[in-house]
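Many introductory courses stop at the sequence. We go one step further.
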Amino acid sequence: MRCPFCGNVDTQVKDSRPAEDHVAIRRRRFCPGCGGRFTTYERVQLRDLVVIKSSGKREDFDRSKLERSIRIAMQKRPVDPDRIDQMISGIVRRLESLGDTDIPSKVIGEIVMESLARIDTVGYVRFASVYKNFQAAGDFDKFVAELRPPPLREE
């Protein structure tokens, strides 16, 4: 593993332990060249996924991009970070098990929204505001109105 500080390719593993509910291995590494310490994660990857954008452009699936967008939506929410990691791993496993290596970005967005809706409504609305490209406050009103149960009718 290359050192992110000096580029040395001869780094040493100092500690390994399971992470993310035993679906990854967390490794603490040390660089003898510069003395830097850093962490790496090792995960099983079933297949290489390709995202098909709405424009038709194709790009390799990037777990870190998915993770970044979810963490932004969940920023300052009272949800355990380990729970978020489990959700992200679950989304990736679900995408890998779809049976096709080419996945439309719309499918990924819908799976993420479905997962966020189960964990945190505010994170769900935040993600949806970007995913569905809300332009005005009225867009939020309509979306949130769909989340609320209909009022009880008095007879």
